[in-house]
Amino acid sequence: TCLVCGTKAHKNELFRVVRRPDGGASVDETGRSHGRGAYLCSNAPCWYKAIHGNRLDHVLKGFVSLQDKLVLEEMGKKISSVQTGR
Prior knowledge:
The protein has 86 residues and is an alpha+beta fold. The protein is 40% helix and 16% strand. Strands 2-1-3 form a three-stranded antiparallel beta sheet. A hairpin with a 5-residue loop joins strand 1 and strand 2. Helix 1 (44-52) runs antiparallel to helix 3 (66-84).
């Protein structure tokens, strides 16, 4: 389930953001990384709301650094543009 819009999909169709043991956050491309995870769909507004609000911090149960948020924002833009064909 997408943590922002609530879209239900198979986990292969969603993108997992993980809070790593070192405290950093990143997209888990394998779906098997250790750490607390949160799922996002491919919609750019969901990525924006998760990153710029406090939803991602809340779901991952920890502070997500500004640097990690910027990296996640760029990843969200890439994913959204691939999905929409732009």
